[in-house]
Amino acid sequence: CRNSWVLLMIVTLSNAAAMYREIGYVTGNMCFLVFAQLLYVNAIQKGEECIITTWDIFYEKFGWMLAYWNTCGVPFLYSIQALYIQTILKDYSYKPWQLALMVSTLIPAYYIWDNANSQKNRFRMMRHGVPKYIIQRRAFPQLPWGHIENPRTLKSERGELFVDGWYRYGRKLHYTADLVMAFLWGASCGFDSFIPFFYFFFFISHLLDRERRDDHRCRRKYGELWERYLKLVPYK
After folding, report:
1. Residue 62 — very low, low, confident or very high, per pLDDT cuts 50/70/90?
2. What's the CA gap between 19 and 27, in Å, rounded?
3. For residue 71, how many other CB atoms are within 10 A of its CB?
């Protein structure tokens, strides 16, 4: 996971460097994309301790499918926006107010995505007895409200559900915020081609499948407790 996202960042920065070499400066669109992907890639590095509680590690394991996709798919498909800006848009750039609007949308989406994932995974880590020094790992930046010490939960003999933090307002807010960021990556390339939005539409199908999978698993595992949770938090 670390290698794939670092390689993605290298590919994006390489396209920015190629643009500077060709036209003598880096456009606002490319600067926005570099900033957006840097936030995302850094968040994955700083929160890598959360990976150990994911479905991928617990049940699917790290096999050929994940190894291949993380080596080939992530760095070379998710970086397609940088290549598009460097080869197609060239010296075209959005107006400052358009870039400002995109940044002002990106920052809240990033904050919710980072915080929600942190809250969820640190709750899981506490529940599984992960040492506190790992849970409170001080990689940069640690955003406010990323860890809830005594979270509100729903409990039964079947298990325990986290119903605090961002998850008081929606069951999959981290997915929504993730999709907003994916859309902005594509939007940095304009709207003349479907190609820069491949990642966004691929991600929609991926997250919809995950949402259905999670709902099915939780209904089967938690039973009545899951129904109580749906009434308490009706929004996805």
Report:
1. low
2. 8
3. 13
C-alpha Rg value of the chain to the nearest Å: 19
Q: How far apart are CA 2 and CA 67, in angstroms?
A: 12
* 235 class by beta-carbon count within 10 Å (0-12 exposed, 13-18 middle, 19+ buried): exposed
Judge whether residue 152 has pLDDT over 80. Answer: yes
C-beta of residue 19 within 8 angstroms of C-beta of residue 27: yes
What does the DSSP assignment read for 89-130?
ITT----HHHHHHHHHHHHHHHHHHHHHHHHHHHHHHHHTT-
The residue whose two tokens read 């005594």 is 150
Sequence letter at residue 212: R
Q: What is the pLDDT of residue 1?
A: 62
Please report the pLDDT score of residue 17 as a whole number: 97
> What pLDDT, in 10s, does the model give residues 83-114?
999 999 988 999 999 999 999 999 999 999 99
Number of domains in the chain: 1
CA gap 213, 192 in Å, rounded: 34
- State which residues form the domain around 203: 2-232
